[in-house]
Amino acid sequence: MLALSRKKNEALIINNNIEITVLEIKGEQIKLGISAPKDVPVYRKEVYEQIQEANKDAVNTGGMEALRNLLG
């Protein structure tokens, strides 16, 4: 993991097309702004984990069978 220090209004660039800017600092919380192409999904980690779990559940509870039926 790369650890960086940034101050308010400072940014970092990822992969030439994603910019993360520190917008606000209040105590132990920071507010980040993220500029990324529309085809790059950006999720909070807890939401991403919920999506992954829901996808696993769908596969395990017959989602694959429904997909096979749909595709013929």
Amino- and carboxy-terminal Cα gap:
45 Å
Helix/strand structural class: alpha+beta
Overall geometry comes to: elongated
Q: Outline the biggest β-sheet.
A: 3 strands, antiparallel
> Helical element count?
1
Q: Would you identify the regions where 5 or more consecutive residues have pLDDT less than 50?
A: none
Strand residue content: 25-35%
Helix content: 25-40%
In total, how many beta strands? 3
Order of helices and strands: EEEH
Instruction: Name the strands of the widest sheet in spatial order.
Output: 1-2-3
Query: What is the averaged pLDDT score?
Result: 90
How much is the radius of gyration in Å? 19 Å
Write the topology of this structure.
Layout: E1 11-14, E2 18-26, E3 29-35, H1 45-71
Antiparallel strand pairs: 1-2, 2-3
